[in-house]
Amino acid sequence: MSGTKPDILWAPHQVDRFVVCDSELSLYHVESTVNSELKAGSLRLSEDSAATLLSINSDTPYMKCVAWYLNYDPECLLAVGQANGRVVLTSLGQDHNSKFKDLIGKEFVPKHARQCNTLAWNPLDSNWLAAGLDKHRADFSVLIWDICSKYSPDIVPMEKVRLSAGETEATLLVTKPLYELGQNDACLSLCWLPRDQKLLLAGMHRNLAIFDLRNTSQKMFVNTKAVQGVTVDPYFHDRVASFYEGQVAIWDLRKFEKPVLTLTEQPKPLTKVAWCPTRTGLLATLTRDSNIIRLYDMQHTPTPIGDETEPTIIERSVQPCDNYIASFAWHPTSQNRMIVVTPNRTMSDFTVFERISLAWSPITSLMWACGRHLYECAEEENDNSLEKDIATKMRLRALSRYGLDTEQVWRNHILAGNEDPQLKSLWYTLYFMKQYTEDMDQKSSGNKGPLVYAGIKSIVKSSLGMVESSRHNWSGLDKQTDIQNLSEERILVLQLCGWIKKGTDVDVGPFLNSLVQEGEWERAAAVALFNLDIRRAIQILNEGASSEKGDLNLNVVAMALSGYTDEKNSLWREMCSTLRLQLNNPYLCVMFAFLTSETGSYDGVLYENKVAVRDRVAFACKFLNDTQLNRYIDKLTNEMKEAGNLEGILLTGLTKDGVDLMESYVDRTGDVQTASYCMLQGSPVDVLKDERVQYWIENYRNLLDAWRFWHKRAEFDIHRSKLDPSSKPLAQVFVSCNFCGKSISYSCSTVPHQGRGFSQYGVSGSPTKSKVTSCPGCRKPLPRCALCLINMGTPVSSCPGMREF
Q: Per the database record, which ranges form the GATOR2 complex protein MIO zinc-ribbon like domain (predicted)?
């Protein structure tokens, strides 16, 4: 290294020491400066580390390469390769009292002087040291020395030792190597293969060679120019890296014919490549006159399938310092840590930060990986954010069999938690649609059955010009109000809204009783008032005020209702028109809006958004004429579609408009579960074939699979096939032919193949006596059972003895 750029080495077993090598060897000690000040004479390596010089060794001039002894004792033994080919053992530690003190100063001398290019200690047998030399006529370029003996007469014949020094110096000189390899060639780099003590990989002049010391006469080699810097991946011993000028070659020793991957660097030649010892598949490279270290992450490299397939890698660059980098060294134990040295011996301690990979689990758990560490995001106990997440809601609903109740359809909103009023309205709407469709089918009422699932918008359009209004008396008041005569279509609308039961009876009494039982006093009073029964409304309010969970203020509202007068200029009407907007309950507000409105103008009721859509539609059906009702329904439908409000399914039905509304709902909430079950409930075939509907269904199936709800997904598929026979899934398991891979099941074998008869394939014409002997696709013979000798694929009904079971 004399006259060249410095190199740097971490101690293999002392993780706080490293050596800088150029014209001399300098040993440094690294210590943390996080909680302490920088000591005098120390060199700043980073914000939290500094280096202190411990010792300098200038006894080995003309250094070309250095290798640190891999064993624990002696702790600072280094092998130095010199320009004349000699290898000298030297030390930077206090090893004078060690039992290995005789090794210090020992020299290993080749026959002919030439430059030593590389050194490598054997990781399994720590006494073996391999040296790679330049070419010298017919001499060997790879010499393996045993540092504990002068020579091995059993392996290498003895020769006379020519020394110019005295007998004392002769004891420190070794001239006979343990092995000699690579005759008439030059060795530029070498490394031991960790999988075997006697396998050595050497970068010769024109090839990479694997020497087996058990048989030195033979070697395995591949011709290549990439023979410099050979190094083995410490986590994958069959993967080797080498370089030539600006290219890095990655080799697989199991397939040694050519590189599995070639990495093209910058036009400048490479000076060093090194695998990270703490990270699998991470290779660092350095080019000449550069301050950037390029990293190649081969952690996720797939095994190449074809000869021309190259695996993909992730490439990134790091800049440890501003100056040019002469060399670098990975820390042996600290993850992704390296130290770099510049040509002027400025050093920098640097850590390569890993990319942080985030991963959401299907059950909304968040985890991320950084290096060897895996972190999980744990929610606090008082954090209710997960309860609002739609994925969590859908998962809990799937566990409760949400959407699968096809008889009492309205119960699905209870399975969903009975928390969302829109879901409650949706499933009651679907329940009423199913109920009245079945009732019409039993009565054979023409084509009214499909009209129910088309929604109220279609029902209203079918009855335009058929309804007239008439005056009706109030119950409890001497007053008359114009109400539309209820046609068959308007009665159907009221039934779908839930105000009246199926049949010809238009009494809202049962509906009011159900609202009272559920504690919806204000809504029940409003519905009673809309049906011109003010006395019943006052009675309901009084019952609500006297109940345990009722509001005492309902008595005040009942009192205000009892003072109703029809005079337009009365003080009662003036005060109610002003103060009704201050009421918190929307139903109480619309009650007074109805009483104070002019005949035919009920905007205060129709456009109160907090009132349920079904109640507003039922009110419009009773008080608006055909033109007004049609205009109002169209406007309300468009509002529901834009907002993605599930209450609008009552208006759109399960039609294209319903799909548009559901699309807005899914875009707003992500609830593909409800969208899938809703569209399957009674949609026509053209709606079910809509791309959006199919997309929701497939995404929900994939979601169930991601949650590993295999049985739930199977139940959903069964539910889907019942409601949509065209979506029956194909068979996933069948008996296939060993030759052509086609199905040989009985259902397939009964289909003629290219117009030929069944008898040509060994299948008789009678299905009860069929017997399969060959594949219907390729006509190859089918295997037989080892016990009964029946051919595979024979129907069970044709097997002898099956009638006994």
A: 737-794
